[in-house]
């Protein structure tokens, strides 16, 4: 039976079972926790060099089935690739040219999938970004409320101020800021499905006089400094390295002198953009976030600074995002039958791997998550921020 296997696989000791297309089974170690069902004979040869992109792609395309807890699937997939693939190359990641049409199509691919599908595993506000766990014991609902409050407090929002929400999603932050902090919010998105539901929720909560949402590209933002504060959550990952200077310039132009800008998003592990996770990033780029690019924290702070914004505070929430993704993955796994009625089979396979895989990756430092607070200084270089962070935690 071992004749089926490439030589490199034969000496592994992993709790993994291979079930072949002819029904034969091979255990690669004692007490298997996951069964990999190989449906395509040509896949066996690829198992000698099992990148996460190749394994994930085979599952998405139905050439491979996976039996066992999804968290164990990800762990053993990584162990398999780690054992058989050399260290990752030191090379620049491939970068895309981002124009309005390309970005709009990429956003639609990911975010217009199905509002009902996202509602299955997100919190009740449908906040699709890293939560904030003040003690680590909070449930997802509590942690997402804490995140929204944390952002608003960092922005030192005051009643009557105008807040710009760049990439407003389903409007959870916009509604929270209007409801809890008394501000007027203008949100923009490129997702038609998100905008429709977000506007409905604004109306249902009686917030139409405080919250206006529209379909708008960040490149078309007004540049007259009309907003007191700007927040951008989970947005700059879609901008692309080439457009980061323009993105930061647009944030600078939208906010008034002395105003604050909060950028919350995923950041790369390496400053030189080398790939991580033995194909994990390639899988995400191919199936989850087409055209997505992760800048390093150093890149983002440089671009904000070059645009004229002064970086005044940075917080790393990497482990918070690992915990958030664990919640999302667990919630999806308990509702697979219902999810299968809402999205195509291939999409569900993608999201199962994506959520569990990203939880694993964030926990192990493959990428990070930073909140970067910046201020647009007055002409004399001054600003009105408190001397310490003490007001955030009162």
Automatic annotation (TrEMBL):
Keywords: Lipid metabolism, Methyltransferase, S-adenosyl-L-methionine, Transferase
DUF7884 domain span: 13-76
Highest rank taxon of the organism: Bacteria
SUPFAM superfamilies listed in its UniProt record: S-adenosyl-L-methionine-dependent methyltransferases (SSF53335)
Keyword Chloroplast annotated: no
Keyword flag ATP-binding: no
Family from the record: Belongs to the CFA/CMAS family.
Record-linked NCBIfam families: cyclopro_CfaB
UniProt-recorded name of the protein: C17 cyclopropane fatty acid synthase CfaB
Organism whose genome encodes this protein: Pseudomonas aestuarii
High-level lineage: Bacteria, Pseudomonadati, Pseudomonadota, Gammaproteobacteria, Pseudomonadales
């Amino acid at each position: 039976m071992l004749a089926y296997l490439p030589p490199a696989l034969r000496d592994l000791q992993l709790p993994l079972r291979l079930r072949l297309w002819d029904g034969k089974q091979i255990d690669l170690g004692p007490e298997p926790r996951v069964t990999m069902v190989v449906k395509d004979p040509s896949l066996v040869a690829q198992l000698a060099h099992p990148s996460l992109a190749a394994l994930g792609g085979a599952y998405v395309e139905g050439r491979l089935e996976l039996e066992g807890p999804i968290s164990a699937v990800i762990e053993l997939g990584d162990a398999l690739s780690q054992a058989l693939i050399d260290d990752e190359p030191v090379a620049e990641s491939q970068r895309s040219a981002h124009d309005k049409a390309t970005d709009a199509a990429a956003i639609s691919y990911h975010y217009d999938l199905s509002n009902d599908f996202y509602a299955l595993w997100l919190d009740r506000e449908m906040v699709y970004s890293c939560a904030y766990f003040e003690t680590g014991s909070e449930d997802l609902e509590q942690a997402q409320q804490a995140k929204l409050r944390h952002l608003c407090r960092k922005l030192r929002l005051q009643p009557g101020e105008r807040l710009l929400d760049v990439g407003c999603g389903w409007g959870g932050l916009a509604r929270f800021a209007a409801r809890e902090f008394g501000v007027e919010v203008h949100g923009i998105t490129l997702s038609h499905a998100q905008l429709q539901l977000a506007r409905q929720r604004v109306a249902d909560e009686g917030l139409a006089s405080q919250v206006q949402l529209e379909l708008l590209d960040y490149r078309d933002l007004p540049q007259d400094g009309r907003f007191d504060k700007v927040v951008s959550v989970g947005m700059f990952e879609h901008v692309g390295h080439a457009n980061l200077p323009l993105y930061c310039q647009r944030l600078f132009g939208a906010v008034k002198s002395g105003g604050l800008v909060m950028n919350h998003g995923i950041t790369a592990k390496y400053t030189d953009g080398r790939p991580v996770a033995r194909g994990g990033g390639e899988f995400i780029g191919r199936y989850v976030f087409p055209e997505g690019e992760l800048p390093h924290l150093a890149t983002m702070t440089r671009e904000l600074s070059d645009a004229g914004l002064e970086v005044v505070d940075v917080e790393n929430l990497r482990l918070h995002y690992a915990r958030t993704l664990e919640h999302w993955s667990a919630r999806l796994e308990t509702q697979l039958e219902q999810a299968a009625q809402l999205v195509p089979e291939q999409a569900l396979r993608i999201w199962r791997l994506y959520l569990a895989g990203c939880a694993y990756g964030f926990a192990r430092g493959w990428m990070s998550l930073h909140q970067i607070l910046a201020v647009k200084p007055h002409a004399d270089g001054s600003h009105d921020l408190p001397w310490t962070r003490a007001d955030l935690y009162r």
